[in-house]
Amino acid sequence: MMQNVHLAPETDEDDLYSGYNDYNPTYDTEELENDIAFQEAVRTSHGRRPPITAKIPSTAVTRPVATGYGSKTSLASSMGRPMTGAIQDGVTRPMTAVRAAGFTKAAVRGSAFDPLGQSRGPAPPLEAKNEDSPEEKIRQLEKKVNELVEESCIANSCGDLKLALEKAKDAGRKERILVRQREQVTTPENINLDLTYSVLFNLASQYSANEMYAEALNTYQVIVKNKMFSNAGRLKVNMGNIYLKQRNYSKAIKFYRMALDQIPSVHKEMRIKIMQNIGVTFIKTGQYSDAINSFEHIMSLAPNLKAGFNLILSYFAVGDRDKMKKAFQKLIAVPLEIDEDDKYISPSDDPHTNLVIEAIKNDHLRQMERERKAMAEKYIMTAAKLIAPVIETSFAVGYDWCVEVVKASQYVELANDLEINKAITYLRQKDFNQAVETLKMFEKKDSRVKSAAATNLSFLYYLENEFAQASSYADLAVNSDRYNPSALTNKGNTVFANGDYEKAAEFYKEALRNDSSCTEALYNIGLTYKRLNRLDEALDCFLKLHAILRNSAQVLYQIANVYELMEDPNQAIEWLMQLISVVPTDSRALSKLGELYDSEGDKSQAFQYYYESYRYFPSNIEVIEWLGAYYIDTQFCEKAIQYFERASLIQPSQVKWQLMVASCFRRSGNYQKALDTYKDIHRKFPENVECLRFLVRLCTDIGLKEVQEYATKLKRLEKMKEIREQRVRSGRDSGGGSRSRREGSAGSGPRSSYPRPQKVAAAACSLCPTHAKGGLPHRGVAISYLVSPPWS
């Protein structure tokens, strides 16, 4: 044991670094090239033999320990075999696996350890991409096709359908080129089917959006018939939608059913929507029993509002009262799946909780909940109004049943709305007393319902010209809900009817402050400013209203009328031209255009619009008179005769039209016809002096014997006329003093300078044929409860 222990000599005590230059011969690699045994082992198979698997426990063999001072001794491995690089029997065992450790045969002692080869310098530059290679061209073309598809979709979402279709067509062309290039370079299995599918599907969608249904169907057929496209069968739904738009209902049902067969049952929602489309198509074809089966199946699987409402419509079409009631109850029971309003009320004063509630009070989810609730209320209200008159013996009993069902559901607040609709139904049946009684029942309800009922009562009394009652209920509506714009508008109308325009304008302004979209108040304040001769402000109001209601004929007319009052006929003509583009058959607007062109001296344009006005409404005396006078001025008296004859039919008691007919005959040289006409006028109006004068002149020119008779009658009438005028003059002279005394006594009391309320109420819409001038303020109505003519 001690033979391998070497004691340090005493002479070396002070040499702390002695022995560090000695090393184990195992690590000596400098002389490997000169080692004959190692080189022989490398050249022969001896050095390439695999290692022997150890079968002897490695712990049974001990290895000698070498110190830094002993001679080079061999080291034994755990297998009892000499270790790599050890000297055994004078032969050095070759070293292996040294290159992987970072050593090379050229390495010298002291060189840096560089296993990653970083000393060799930077890597050579990457090989430049070959732009002309077929693979690169295919990649670039595929990228371009994807970009075109995306641009097409974006253009469609922005409303530019033509650009979207052009992009889709361009993508289709480039995709076909891409397929041909792929077939030349690679095998057909490497074709990008997803890209082909997306290009064809987008092209079909754009064809459909542009109403090019034949092309869209052809493109869908290409997709559906290609068995390589997975799930292409569901596109038959789109084809069914196109056939539905084309009113080809049988094919639409066929494709819907084919799509339904190809969609697995796991896609429950998709199947429900297709079945709903099938039911709607059956309704359009009048097959209500089949539609009922579809909607009943939907309501049993996944009840929803649309299916429930369509089911009620189907039962209403077949007249089944009991089923209508059951379907209405099913519609009421459809869950909304929205949170209650209490969730958005803070239960504590915690600022963090309040901040969270404030953030979610009007977020997108809350808006979606409001929209869903509004849609549910709309369906329920429409269904109730539809079935109430037919499910019971009278509509009142039907409404009462609907109200009771609604009160027992989650839509309790709709019960009051149904009651107000009941009052409106009474109005449609001209039963005003029942309507008023029904609305008066709400005077003791909560403020919102009371305000709505009082608003409608004010409207009713205003229509009946009972302005005191209208004002009373308008006050009640305003006091119940100060922020009700319809109530404020009605109050302004009652004040307007009493002639207090400034105060009326204040009410209209307050209504606009509460609801800037209240078009009735904005229209009425424009009329008020017009009455106050504040034309610039009136024009500003009507222009704002025009920005909201682009195609409102009343607003366009008012703008033209204001420009006419401002003595700007060119602008008035321009706005009237816009008006007749909206209502091309409005005779009043056409006659106004003719009047403006006539005032500008353009007789030909004036004749054109007057003639169009006469064609649509041949009973306007002013238009008839202008057309007759126009033909007389242009020396076409024969054409003027028909207009004056029509005027004489409209006003048979006015002798001037018949005299104009006779005058036209005389001017055209038909004296005999003129003489007969004058004789006929004389029989009807024997005291007409002008007719007798023309008779005397004609008889003298023709040389008839009746001239003396007509001359005698003319003298007698002229004498009687002189006597009558003398009596009138003498009566005026004798009654002048007494009249002045009466006027003095009458002037002692105050007199209103405003027109009577009845006169104001009679001045209705300026476009109405029976009320041509002025403008009545629009009656403010409770929009949710009462539908009235928009500018009554």
UniProtKB/TrEMBL annotation:
Write out the entry's keywords from A to Z.
TPR repeat
Q: Does the record carry tRNA processing as a key word?
A: no
Membrane-spanning ranges = none
Note down the stretches annotated as region Disordered.
1-24, 112-135, 725-757
In terms of Gene3D superfamilies, this protein maps to: Tetratricopeptide repeat domain (1.25.40.10)
Q: InterPro entries from the xrefs?
A: TPR-like_helical_dom_sf, TPR_rpt
TPR repeat segments: 233-266, 272-305, 485-518, 519-552, 553-586, 587-620, 621-654
Alphabetized PANTHER family for the sequence = INTRAFLAGELLAR TRANSPORT PROTEIN 88 HOMOLOG
Name of protein: Intraflagellar transport 88
Protein species of origin: Felis catus (Cat)
Q: Which gene encodes it?
A: IFT88
